[in-house]
Amino acid sequence: MTSAPSARRLAEQATQTLEPIYELLGRVAEEVLASRPARAALTEAHFSGLQRLLADLVGRDPGIGGMGFVAAPFVVDGLERYMAWWQRQNERVARLRLNFDPTSIDVYDYLQMDWYQLAQRGQARVAYGPYVDYSGSDMYTITATIPVIADGTFLGVAGADLVVGRVERRLIDVLRQTSEDAVVVNAERRVIAANTPRWIVGSRLAAMPAAGPAADPGAFREVAEMPLGTGWVLAIAWPTRD
């Protein structure tokens, strides 16, 4: 008779389903760094290889709604804001172009967004969401980012908008290995996936899952942080009382 998988084991397996995303972001970051000229200012003209890579990666993976490089101020062409971002639009993959005019009412000010700021502050891996990106892709998404750094200088982030439903299905495949109620929660206490209707994706828990006695109605039997590096946790609940 095999024992039920522990929260730690499930957390490790759940991480393995998402590691490929951060490996792709690493490739994007490497391409950005390789595009930098030795003795000249970085311009969009240097990103021809990056643009081809982004279009190819987005086109190959239906779980990625968009992907690109989002620059820190004045890194590219002396511009305060710059994005090289490709997005899936139905069956097409196209360059996403947004309004960066700071005087405009509908400016896309990514400098104020958590997925950018967390990476800028030094978080090696960010996974922000799920949320509806009304001002950008109009997708229900999770935005994954990593910082792009050269010689200690923050150049911006490599990022990807992940299709929430596909992330959820990958995680549910892992959670279904246990017959007990289990849930994945992000650092903002929002539910990413669950193997039971007990928790709704996108809803926010009253508190981060914590292990405790069965007599405590808010406690979980087991809680393990996913080694993904994003602050997500996997929690297994105590059996519900009839």
Summarize this structure as a short list of keywords or feature phrases:
2 domains, Beta-Lactamase, six-stranded antiparallel sheet, four-stranded antiparallel sheet, 242 residues, alpha+beta
Number of domains in the coordinates? 2
User: CATH topology of the largest domain, which one?
Assistant: Beta-Lactamase
Radius of gyration: 20 Å
The amount of beta strand, in percent, is 25-35%
Instruction: Output the helix-strand order.
Output: HHEEEHEEEHEEEE
Tell me about the biggest sheet?
6 strands, antiparallel
- Low-pLDDT runs of 5+ residues are none
Number of strands: 10
Please identify which CATH superfamily of the largest domain we are dealing with: PAS domain
- The termini sit apart by 27 Å
Mean pLDDT: 94
Tell me which CATH architecture of the largest domain applies here: 2-Layer Sandwich
Shape: elongated
What's a concise summary of this model?
With 242 residues, the chain is an alpha+beta fold.
Description of the structure:
The protein folds into 2 domains: 13-163, Beta-Lactamase (2-Layer Sandwich), CATH 3.30.450; 166-237, no CATH class. The strands form 2 sheets. The chain has a 6-stranded antiparallel sheet with strand order 3-2-1-6-5-4, sandwiched between helices. It has a 4-stranded antiparallel sheet with strand order 8-7-10-9. It is elongated, with a radius of gyration of 20 Å. It has 242 residues and is α+β, with helices and mostly antiparallel strands. Helix content is 25%, strand content 28%.
